Amino acid sequence: MSESNDRILNKLFKESNTYIEEAVDLNKEEFIKVVESRRSVRIYNESKVEAEDMLKCLELSLLSANSSNLQPWEFYWVKDLDKKQQLIDYCLGQPAAATAQELVVCVARPDNWKVNTQLMLDMFKEKELPKAVSTYYNKIVPLAYNQGFLGLFGLIKKISTFFIGLKRSIPREPTSFNDMKIWAHKSTALACQTLMLSLRAFGYDSCPMEGVDSRKIKKLLKLPKKAQICMVISAGKRAKNGVYGKRFRLEKERFIKII
């Protein structure tokens, strides 16, 4: 607990990393166009979303930045017509769901950190595992994300970080099951944004919905208790009246602080 995960990871990889990946040249104007044209569309027309496009957008969402590359997310593309109708009901019948061509339930999985860690280590077995990777996933990750029986180890971490933090900077979270929920939701939300931007880049529209019956959705998808519904994302092409109004934001100075 004496150093942050990122600081330890950077130190380990600095000692052993020889991998080089050049950044590709991009068209910033096209990216600006994608971001500025993404709107929360409430009504879709009857144009279909090509299955290969939807699948590719979902695959692109998996490339999103995430904590320790533990990928604490799941995306349920609901294609079954009966389940889709139930999902619309659980989204309270709102037009963004009822008129959508496709619906995706985005799920945060704080409970999957351990199994995903092992899956990554199993994958690395096929290659020569760098010492930095082995150290990080065998030692640092369990220390950071394990909360222990009844959260007791997390409580110990919270007390120790408090006293260590009196003398120097130290990461404070996650030290509880609630912290782990927040941890998973942050990474999942990043992937949700990637999914929506990808859909826009492919010529489609989307709407993130939080006004849903999460309990019934979890039952529909047969999710375990610790799984968390992050949001439901609808997809399609906007109807002429699909955007309810001109976009507006509060003054940028309220949110962007240059110090």
Q: How do the strands and helices of this protein lay out in sequence?
A:
Layout: H1 5-16, H2 28-37, H3 51-61, E1 73-77, H4 81-90, H5 95-98, E2 102-108, H6 113-124, H7 131-145, H8 152-164, H9 177-201, E3 205-209, H10 214-221, E4 228-236
Antiparallel strand pairs: 1-2, 2-4, 3-4
Helix pairs in contact: 1-7, 3-9, 4-10, 6-7
Can you describe what's shown?
The chain has 259 residues and is α+β, with helices and mostly antiparallel strands. The protein is built from ten helices and four strands. The chain has helices at 5-16, 28-37, 51-61, 81-90, 95-98, 113-124, 131-145, 152-164, 177-201, 214-221, and strands at 73-77, 102-108, 205-209, 228-236. The protein has a four-stranded antiparallel beta sheet with strand order 1-2-4-3, with helices on both faces. The longest helix has 25 residues, at 177-201. The two termini are 29 Å apart.
Instruction: Specify the biggest β-sheet.
Output: 4 strands, antiparallel
Q: What do the pLDDT scores average to? A: 92
Query: CATH homologous superfamily, by name?
Result: NADH Oxidase
Say how many strands there are. Answer: 4
Proportion of residues in helical segments: 40-55%
Query: Structural class, from secondary structure content?
Result: alpha+beta
Please tell me how large the radius of gyration is: 21 Å
At the third CATH level, what is the topology name? NADH Oxidase
CATH architecture: 3-Layer(aba) Sandwich
User: What proportion strand?
Assistant: 5-15%
Query: What number of domains?
Result: 1
Q: How is the largest sheet built, in terms of strand order? A: 1-2-4-3
**CATH first level: which class?**
Alpha Beta
Shape: globular
Helix and strand pattern: HHHEHHEHHHHEHE
Unreliable stretches covering 5 or more consecutive residues: none
Task: Specify the number of helices.
Answer: 10
Question: How far is the first residue's CA from the last residue's CA?
Answer: 29 Å
